[in-house]
Amino acid sequence: MNYNTFLIRYGISPDNFKAVVAEPIKTSTGYMYCLEQRTDINRQCPFCDSKSIIIKDYDMIKTNISINDNSKDFLMIKKVRFKCKRCNKT
After folding, report:
1. pLDDT given at position 17
2. What radius of gyration, in Å, describes the C-alpha atoms of the chain?
3. 33 near 27, Cβ under 8 Å?
4. Which of 23, 29, 37, 69 sits a CA distance of 20 to 30 A from 56?
5. Would the pTM count as exceeding 0.85?
């Protein structure tokens, strides 16, 4: 499946995710898709506007993207948590 087509179909901007092919994984109730957030984007702290941002850790986020009741489709996102070196907020 084309990466950009998959994201656009679900209304997600592809700019924030790594450009990989998101093949669906068959589950017992539907399909699961996996994405990973990009880490190479220049980030800015929303609290102090500093550009001294480091990666703190990663979280896995599970989001329901089902469009009907017959199939339970999920989106798994490996989300990056950033930390500001100036104000120490995440």
Report:
1. 84
2. 16
3. no
4. 23
5. no
